[in-house]
Amino acid sequence: MDIVCALRTFLRVAETGSFSAAAIDLKLTQPAVSRQVSALEAQLDTRLLHRSTTALALTAEGERMIPMALRVIEAVEALGDSAGPVGTASGKVRLSLPTPLGLYMSDRLAALLDRHPELSVELLFREEPSDLIGEGIDLEVRLGPVSDSSLICRRIGWTTAFLVASSAYLEKRGPPQTIEDLSHHDCICYRRGGDGRSWLFSNGSDQVAVRVAPRFVVNNAVAVHRAALAGAGIAILSHILAAPDICAGRLINLVPDFPPARLPINLVHSSRRNMPLRVRTVIEYLVAAMREDPFMASSSASGPNERCLAGKA
What ranges in 54-161 are assigned the alpha helix state H? Predict the structure, then answer.
């Protein structure tokens, strides 16, 4: 039995929760996937999965096997990288990002994939932290502080966001003159962890938290963007979504002297030991992509606003 192949199959079954779904991903038949998992269980003399006609679930031993299986596969891939052609990455990388950054990277991955024909990337749009090991995620981008000390964390940029509303909304309600005025407005809240109802602003020296009473709360930034364009209220939006509309006049940048506070953009992964070339390649490309955008590359609280959207308030 090829134990590395069997471990890969087991991990895919655990990720998808289905023999048939894993078979499709691995380009195998469902019986072949089942046989590989059964052979692995026989080799280890332990049951890894509970099976029934309607459900599939990991046993306690299967849960413990996942991080060990990942370490084995990482070590084997690292050996292959060292023996293979220099600079040639292969295999799949699962990368989780907040929706705006996912859209940003979607526009930029073609060049990376052209450069590495054997590499594939699976983007997962996530608004909240994932279980990296349990879900087989290689890399995740998180906004703000990272509290899990077991993860390797690297700051790769800064968020820039704008307080915006459409002209149609402002004609009905008038623009807020200060951030304190937001309590009297219809606000669209993007809930990304927490309740989303406390908005933090910074003028470079002071930070102020403002409580709002939203009429619309959603956990997807694209939905917030569409609602703002439709005149549903005032929103805080990433520059990735808002900047083109501000420049085109579809959204108005409000209270520009006291913009939303900036957050660190952190890249996290479970281990730096035996990191495969495929993962290192995506990290390097992701970091370079962040540096290309002045809104994310600059640590200055006011620089990007003044430089890129001067006169757009």
Answer: 60-83, 99-106, 109-115, 132-135
User: What is the distance between the alpha carbons of residues 84 and 11, in angstroms, rounded to a whole number?
Assistant: 24
Contact 202, 301 (CB under 8 A): yes
- CA atoms within a 13 Å half-sphere pointing along the CA-CB vector of 280: 15
Query: Whole-model pTM?
Result: 0.70
The total of structural domains in the chain comes to 3
Task: Indicate if 78 and 147 belong to the same structural domain.
Answer: no
Neighbours of 57 (CB within 10 A): 12
* Per-residue pLDDT tens digits for 157-191: 999 999 999 999 999 999 999 999 999 999 999 87
Q: Which two tokens stand for residue 186?
A: 């219809």
Domain that holds residue 302: 85-158+263-308
CB 39 within 8 A of CB 240: no
Q: Are 49 and 13 in contact (CB under 8 A)?
A: yes
Q: How many Cα atoms occupy the beta-carbon half-sphere of 195 within 13 Å?
A: 6
